[in-house]
Amino acid sequence: GRKFFVGGNFKMNGTVSGIKDIVHNISTAKTDPNTEVVVAPPALYLLLTREHLDPKFEVAAQNIFDKPSGAFTGEISASQLKDSGINWTLLGHSERRTVLREDDDFIASKTKSAIEQGVGVILCCGESLEEREKGTTVDVVTRQLDAVNKMVDKEAWKNIVIAYEPIWAIGTGKVATTEQAQEVHAAIRDWLSKSVSSEAAENTRIIYGGSVSDKNCRELAKEKDIDGFLVGGASLKPAFVDIINANQ
Ligand code: 13P
Q1: Which residues, in sequence order, are bridge partners of residue 8?
Q2: Domain 4-21+34-232 = CATH 3.40.50.1820
Q3: What is the pLDDT of residue 162?
Q4: What confidence score (pLDDT) does residue 199 get?
Q5: Which of 53, 59, 120, 186 is in the most buried spot, having the most CB atoms within 10 Å?
Q6: Taking the domains of the chain in order of start, what are their residue ranges?
Q7: Is 75 helix (H, G, I), strand (E, B) or coil?
Q8: How many A from CA of 7 to the centre of ligand 1?
Q9: Which residues 6+ apart lie within 8 Å of 177 measured at CB?
Q10: How far apart, in whole angstroms, are the C-alpha atoms of residue 89 and residue 114?
Q11: Phi, psi of 66, rounded to the nearest 5 degrees
Q12: What residues are labeled active site?
């Protein structure tokens, strides 16, 4: 079976003392040993988080650049993450796709760079409300995944977790229904089987993000193709522990 996976995306939130508190709370809580937990603070607090988080949990960057080093002011690389004990990164979050105007090919190139350096990728995909209403959800998501698949080899998917995050559900309190999420997760698994391999379809974790809370996580976790969550707002609160334990 696929190991349940819960990521906490702090986005651009937190302070030195606030992040220490959150990390301490997660580290000392009673958490399901069968769930993999990865916490993604702002870049400035990655090392602080690594220092204070229990070693059984992993830390992720929220983004990287696609070159290992050089004259790229303001950017950080996958090899620098590795050097700092940070073994994961988010890539392709919708906030970066829209606000920072990142395109599919740039995200694919960054994914390739992370995988080459041995950094695991939480690869985000998802449609806007307009795209959902036009009926193009699966087209959009598979286009985003195809761009990555063109640039990486099949083995790379062993180190990629796919996060399906419908944009209309992010930070809105409007969570996808269990049926809506399951339908897209199943379509992504079908895409994996056709475009990567049956092994990738069987083993790749597909996690859901968008207004996940301690109230709705258990119902979602029962769906057969939902292998965990990517949590924004609620990852900053004590309730994050209940989401980590959603699969118990
Ligand atoms: P919320 O949980 O705040 O809706 O954010 C989801 C998200 O974007 C996680 O990456």
Answers
A1: 39, 231
A2: no
A3: 99
A4: 98
A5: 59
A6: 4-21+34-232
A7: coil
A8: 10
A9: none
A10: 8
A11: -95, 15
A12: 93, 165
How far apart (Å, rounded) are the C-alpha atoms in residues 196 and 36?
Answer: 24
Largest CA distance in the chain: 47
Distance CA 153, CA 108 (A): 12
Task: Please give the structure tokens belonging to residue 248.
Answer: 């118990």
Residues with CB under 6 A from ligand 1: 9, 93, 165, 170-171, 209-212, 230-234
The string of pLDDT tens digits covering residues 178-200 is 999 999 999 999 999 999 999 99
Q: Which two tokens stand for residue 176?
A: 């996808």
Q: Where are the alpha helices (DSSP H) in the chain?
A: 16-28, 46-52, 78-83, 94-98, 104-116, 129-133, 137-151, 178-195, 198-203, 217-221, 240-244
The predicted pLDDT at position 41 comes to 99
- What is the pLDDT, as a whole number, of residue 26? 98
